[in-house]
Amino acid sequence: MQADLWRGLRTHDLQVVSTDHCPFCMKGQKELGTDSFAKIPNGMPGVETRLYLLWDGGVRAGRISMNRFVEITSTAPAKIFGLYPKKGTIAVGADADLVVWDPNKKHVLSQKTLHMRVDYSPYEGQEVTGAPSHVLSHGKVVIEDFKYKGKKGDGRFVKRSTFAL
To answer: String of b and e for 154-163 (b: at least 16 CB within 10 Å)?
Structure first.
């Protein structure tokens, strides 16, 4: 099954990798299912780990190319959500929202090192290679070496198109 998903990404049968990001906490939420599986809130956190896992398991493992990684994580979602070409491309007139990716940077996935508001990580202790070194919003560095450098109000609303390109 997993091999089929990687093949779908490689052959363009699948356009993106997304998550519903349902960060239910173990304490007070998931533990509701202790006596009945039917009471467990479904879902798990995934939005922050997605890029790490796609790079490490995809590009580093030779399952997808570096260009395909960028397409899957940036260009295709921007097109699907009607935000292209303001987002999802490096071009004159685009927003200059960029992630500078260090392909060799080691990172351990852990609830303690992630920023999601949840009390566990499904990938607790997993070491991955490849991580962002800088994040730019409108050309301004807002994250550098896992530290937030921006300030409240740095972002801005971008109206989306009603159709995908």
So the answer is: eeeeeeeeee
| pTM for this prediction | 0.88
Mean pLDDT of the chain: 92
pLDDT tens per residue, range 132-147: 999 999 999 999 988 9
- What whole-number distance in Å separates Cα of residue 28 and Cα of residue 127? 28
Q: How far, in Å, CA of 146 to CA of 132, rounded?
A: 8
CA separation, residue 165 to residues 17, 76, 94, 142, 145 (Å): 18, 9, 15, 29, 34
Backbone angles phi, psi at 40, to 5 degrees: -75, 125
Domains of the chain with bracketed CATH? 2-148 (3.20.20.140)
Provide the b/e sequence for 20-46 (b: ≥16 CB within 10 Å).
eeebbeeeebbeeeeeeeeeeeeebbb
